[in-house]
Each structure stands twice: as structure tokens, then as C-alpha cells.
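Practice problem: predict the structure.
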Amino acid sequence: MVSDLNRSFSDRMQRDWAPVQNSSMYRLSTAQLGIWFAQQINPYASAYNIGEYIEIHGSLDPRLFEQALRTVVGETDALRLQIVNHLDVPQQVVRPALSWTMPYTDLSEEADPRAVAEAWMQADLARPVGPTGGPLFGYALFKASADRFFWYARYHHIIMDAFGMWLIARRVANIYTQLAIGRTTNEGSFGSLAALLEQDAVYRASNQFALDRQFWADYLDGCPEPASLAGHPSLGESRGFLRNTAHLPNRSMDRLRSAAHRTGTTVAQIISAATAVFLHRLTSSNDLVVGLPVAARNGVSRFTPGMVSNVLPLRVSVRPNMTMSEVVGQTSWQMRRVLKHQQYQIADLRRDGGIANGRMPFGLSLNIMAFDYSFKFAGNNIIAHNLSLGPVEDFSIAIYHRSDDVPVRIDLDANPARYSAVDLANYQQRFLKLLIASADPDVSIGRLELLSGEERRTLLQDWNA
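Answer:
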């Protein structure tokens, strides 16, 4: 069944991507150039496909859904982009229109509709999509039952980030809802690619750009080799990733909220501090740098889908005799510092002479996404399921706080060239244990227990052998 779906869907998704004619060319943004140059190392890799699927609880009209989706594609510059290599310089063109299809498949007779749909989605994500190919997105709709549907969305990272993916999903839900009650609206339409690129150009020509560059040069001066759970940073290209998913119990989330209130911080800051402690405890490193993905958006970019996001090096000093509240305090301070300079792209950091020596200054990254997915499709509730956030060079922790009605989801992604499935499962168990214990601000981080009872017994047996 899956192989048949793969063949038919692939043919329909790749239809009619014609050459560019009579359109204005734009340069790539700094964030896009980072993706462009990274993929030149392996042009046929699928690592830069990002995607999710939205589980819709309730009846859905596929015809109205496709109408809503086509409306959004038509008003979104990023979804009508074609990347061209013009005189050996990458450029992009916004096409006035393009031909594409949205496959719709009824899986309600399958024994496990979700498994069949997810298998197809993973196969589609694994297909290489070059930045000069197209279209640079793909959609599909699956019917699991009369009152459950799965909307799959895949994008090349050069045109879209996670924030933009959320903007599009929310907009499709809004337009579908309006169509379902017989209305049409332009309210909430997006900004233009030209405005997005102008914002990037203004920043790069500003004094703030120079100040940010100097900040990062000073901030990373004397930075140690990146601490990695695998022992050393990856030198190879990521080819897919392993993933383990868990959900944080609501009572544990409530404890973290209470701890944030008592310490005058936020849950995001406590989770970031817990991640630094996690890395410290498992590597014995004291001077730590953790990657912190950020939206890096303000002004028009907050209302415009596209590739804008950035990853900031977050440097934290951790000692075994510190309490959790002390680590949270230092982490919060460092986060406030680096967020003031979040527009300076990680690609610039890696290219700058003498800054981070051209290498990635961190191994582990923490991505906290609090995008509000509480929107509905004509009154029907949804659950968002991420499938990929892009390449995983070493180890990544993603926290999804979608809405108060859905438990917090935690994805641990690892480079399979550096970690095994057993490694990932062990790290997941230890991280969850530490995160839950982090709700106690007075606990000494050197006393936090990361081993399970079985691991502790095995370790003692080895010592006493």
C-alpha cells in the first residue's frame, strides 16, 4: 500500500514546474544563504526537508480544504519561490502562479491508518529535493476515519522555518473556517518576500550588525571545544536522524511553572538550565555551549512565512556545587544577553575569520517552540505532530508546548552516525528524570540522580567486580 502511494503521490506532486519567465529576481537572505551553501556539500541530501502533520479531529470537506490551501499558496511568496543559479550566484524568483496537486487518500479501511500515513510521510521526507528543483513544498491529505484527518506539509528549509510553517497552518485553518461558513476574507494575509529581504538588508547595513558581530567575537573568545554526549563534535554530514518522543506529565509541567514563578524566571529558562546541567553531568564539562534555535523575527517578519530563523550559541558555566536556582539564574542572564543579538546569523559566525574557527561552537541544541496550535478547522480541534526540523549534526532536544490542552512533547533527535537507538533511549530517560528534578530550585546539581535503579546496580557490580 505504501509503495503504491509513494509512486502515485510523487508523480502528482512534481507536476508542471516550468522555467522562470518574466519575473523579478531577488537575492537570497542571509539565513537562506546558510542553507544554500550547506547543501552544496551534498546537493542530493534530504536533510533540509522539514515537515509536520496536523491531526484534525472532526469531519472535513476535502474540496473546501484544498480551496483554502490553494488560497494560502497563492498569497504566500515563499511557496511560489524558484531558486536559480544566475551567473553562479543563487537568486530567487517569486512566480505569479504554479501548478501543483494535493493528493487525497482515504485510509479508513486500513487496519492502522496512522501507521500507513506516517510511513508515506517519512518516505516523502526522505526524498531529496534540491533547492533549484521544485516545487519546494508538498502537501497531502489523508482520511483516517469519518471524524479524523491528517494534513501533511513538507517544505525545503531554504524557503521555510518552523515559525513560518506555523503561520501557514494557522492561516489555512482560518480560511477553511471562513469558507465553511460561506465567507471569504483577506484579513491576516502575509507580508511580502521583498519586505522580508529589505529588513535583512537594512540590518546588515546597520551599526547594530557591527555591534552584534563584535559581541559574538567577544562572547565566544576562548570558547572550548564543543561538549558532546558522543565525546567529540561531529565532522560528518548528517544523513537522517534517530528520534525518541516522550510527553511530560501535566503535573510535572505544573511543578516547573511553580518553580519559574518562585524564582522569577520562565519555564523556558528552567528547561534551558536543565539542559546545561544535563550536558555538564554527562560530559564533566564546566564551560558549556548549547545551541539555542530562535525565530529571530520582528516587525514584518513576524507575519511573513519564510526562512528567517537562527541558532544562537548559549554559553553557561556550571559547577557541581551549584544549586539548580543558581544555574537557572546564570542561564537566564545569558539568554537575555544573546537574545539581544539574535539577528546575527550562525552562518556568519561560522564564516567569520577567527570566530569559532569556522566550526559549529556547540554539539547539543535545545529548541523550545511555544507556537500556539490551539486554532481550529471550522470548530474541529487539532494536534500538531512534527516530523522533521532539518539536519541533526549531533544531538537535538525539541520541546513543543503547543497549547494548554495538550501535554508538552519532547523529541530527542540524534545523528545515527554518532549514536545508537539504545544510546538515545538512555539519554531520553536521563533527561526526563533531570528535567522533572529541576523543579526543586534548592537541589545541588551534583546530587541530581540520572541513573535508573538497574543502571546503578550494574555500575556498582562493575566497580566491585
